[in-house]
Amino acid sequence: MRRKMLAVLFAAAAIGAGRPIVAQTRIAPLLHDDETIVVTHHRVNTVNGPLAYEARAGRLPIRNDDTGEVRGYVYFTAYVVHAPIDRPRPLTVLWNGGPTINSILVHTEMFGPRRLTNAGMVDNAETLLGTSDLVFFDPVGTGFSRAVAGTDKEFLTTLGDFAETAEFVRAYRARFRAERQPLFLGGESYGTWRVNGTTEMLEKRGVKVTGAILISGGVPGSLMPPTFQDAMYIPARTATAFELKRLAPDLMRDKVATMKAVNDWAVQVYMPALVRIDQLTDVERNTIAEALAHYTGVRPDQIDRKTLVMSNNAFKAGLFEGDKSKVLNTYDMRIVGAEIETIPDRVGILTGYLRDELGYATDLAYNGLEDGYMPVPGPERPSTGARWTYNHVAVTPESLARMNAGGGPPLSQPWLQNAMRIDPKLRVFVAAGRYDSLNMCEGNVMMSAKLEPVLASRFTHRCYEGGHMMYRVQSTRLAMSRDIARFISTATP
């Protein structure tokens, strides 16, 4: 009796802490080169009360369809709430960007049932698990995911990445008999490209994607010209200069009025001027340059009179007139310099969560958090980004120059629009951070509005107070959690 009482007390304590409430189980391999999947059971306290769930941690093989040969192993963490068979819950597969990095940010700072804090991992009361089952996907070369020797080049390209992701989604749904669950795909930054390309691949194969969630990646595939991007980056810079008090007094009085004025100017004056730049007189060039400087808080002489464009990197370095100690952060321009790490034992907490709380007790290094073995002497392990090839378009000197100036990768293709034309029920949620140097709140709305009405009407846009990782602002994280949960609930049949 005493042992039973102790077991009950221990289980109750574990429930409150989000730890396993029953012993872990292990899903045995089906084929000789499969791996075991670890399953544990937990409970999280949410805004709607306690929620019991199953966690799955493991790696699925990516096989050549012709030969069955394993080409790589993809690590995933999944969270499942068991529901009646006749009412399958939505299934949302989520990842971060890069290219290409692990999913730890969207997993442990935004959507998962446990959230990273200074105090360690705590219950995430707003977890998306209350609305949808969740799968966090680490592409090959990140996290615990690995390529088989000599195959990494298959995965480290734009199109290879899409193919890998589509195969993982297929394999996961088949392995866990999840084909009837409405499918949502969500990604951050470059991860929005992965959402779009994978969605097109799946739809062409007859696999329906109910919704696409695009975070900090805009509306990829709209094929808007560089002049559009140059113009629509400006409102974010104005908002940043307002927050850092670098604007002239007339623009510091009313932020809402200032943001409306700069957006109107960017669309009605600046963008048309860039389109006909070769025809502008010197007087017109000076007028545009002075207005651009006024709206962004820099000096007029910092604007190149030939191009009338200030690159992202030039603005971040130039807002404080070239002071090298005051370069703006790429991901949240309100931050001057690098973002300060506020969680001293971040790596230990996160790896402990994966290995201990979820029971995935591997000695592999979790790439992106830990460094594993490399031959010594010899070069350090190159990042997946350093080995990446954009093979969806030809990379031109012009697109390469824009990338190097902080303007983002070569133009994406209309993968998502193609998928939406195949599937008239596919809906899209777009989230952007106001102070993200790589995104454009107003530009996203304009890009989707230029699509045919039957597509444009299926977009939901939100602009949040925050940067690229906007969920690091608590009020934004709460609002975004509600908005995405509502989007999934509304889009689900």
Walk me through the structure.
The chain is α/β, with parallel strands linked by helices and 493 residues long. It is built from 16 helices and 13 strands. The strands form 2 sheets. Strands 1, 2, 3, 4, 5, 8, 9, 10, 11, 12 and 13 form an 11-stranded mixed β-sheet that branches. Strands 6-7 form a two-stranded antiparallel sheet. The N and C termini lie far apart (49 Å).
* Envelope shape: globular
Number of contiguous helices: 16
Major sheet summary line: 11 strands, mixed
The assigned structural class equals alpha/beta
Q: Averaged pLDDT, please? A: 92
SSE ordering: HEEEEEHEEEEHHEHEHHHHHHHHEHHEH
How much is the radius of gyration in Å?
24 Å
Name its key features.
single chain; 493 residues; alpha/beta; 11-stranded mixed beta sheet; two-stranded antiparallel sheet; 36% helix; 18% strand; disordered N terminus
What's the structural blueprint in terms of helices and strands?
Blueprint lengths: L1 H16 L4 E6 L9 E10 L2 E15 L6 E11 L10 E5 L8 H8 L2 E4 L2 E4 L9 E6 L7 E2 L4 H4 L2 H18 L7 E6 L2 H14 L6 E5 L10 H7 L1 H10 L11 H21 L6 H15 L15 H7 L27 H12 L39 H8 L10 H8 L4 E7 L7 H9 L3 H4 L2 E6 L9 H18 L2
Parallel strand pairs: 5-8, 5-10, 10-11, 11-12, 12-13
Antiparallel strand pairs: 1-2, 2-3, 3-4, 4-8, 4-9, 6-7
Helix pairs in contact: 4-5, 5-13, 6-8, 7-8
In short:
By secondary structure, the protein is an alpha/beta fold. The protein is 36% helix and 18% strand.
